[in-house]
């Protein structure tokens, strides 16, 4: 799929927005309307290597599970998420989140999404409306992100870690 970009201005400083978005456990709070059943892939949910697995809600998605991992952080400018989705996780995904100053403590959030389907059948299913649905869902996600950061309302649930409590030395033990 050709990349597309959605954007929104948030009335918060760029550093605050970057801190919020660089924590992978926060993403389900604003994307849970189309990415559900989130599970974090490791205990430490911030920084490079943090990521999640989720079930997407897109039209004609026969294999809705996907995942992504934070592969690059350039504080407070960019966050790069790389992942896979589809049958046998064969469709690569790349999500680039750019944060730009918009003056007076405001931040312009730009999210660029690109997928690389392998087979013609994957490209065909994307052409049946997945691209437009994905764009619509990300526009709504950025509106929810704006509500969360500006007014502290409209939050979904934070993700849990797959497998439950860990070793007794962690904060997550029962």
UniProtKB/TrEMBL annotation:
Pfam family, one: Polyketide_cyc2
InterPro entries: Polyketide_cyclase/dehydratase, START-like_dom_sf
SUPFAM superfamilies: Bet v1-like
Protein name: Unannotated protein
Gene source species: freshwater metagenome
């Amino acid at each position: 799929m050709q990349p597309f970009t959605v954007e929104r201005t948030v009335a918060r400083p760029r550093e605050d927005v970057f801190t919020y978005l660089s924590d992978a456990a926060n993403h389900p709070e604003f994307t849970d309307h189309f990415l559900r059943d989130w599970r974090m892939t490791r205990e430490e949910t911030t920084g490079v290597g943090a990521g999640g697995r989720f079930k997407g809600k897109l039209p004609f998605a026969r294999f809705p599970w996907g995942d992504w991992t934070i592969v690059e952080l350039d504080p407070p400018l960019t966050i790069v998420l790389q992942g896979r989705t589809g049958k046998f996780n064969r469709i690569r995904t790349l999500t680039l989140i750019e944060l730009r100053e918009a003056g007076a403590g405001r931040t312009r959030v730009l999210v660029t999404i690109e997928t690389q389907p392998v087979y013609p059948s994957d490209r065909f299913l994307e052409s049946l409306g997945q691209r437009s649905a994905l764009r619509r869902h990300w526009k709504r996600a950025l509106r929810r992100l704006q509500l969360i950061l500006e007014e502290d309302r409209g939050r979904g649930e934070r993700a849990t870690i797959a497998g439950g409590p860990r070793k007794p030395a962690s904060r997550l033990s029962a």
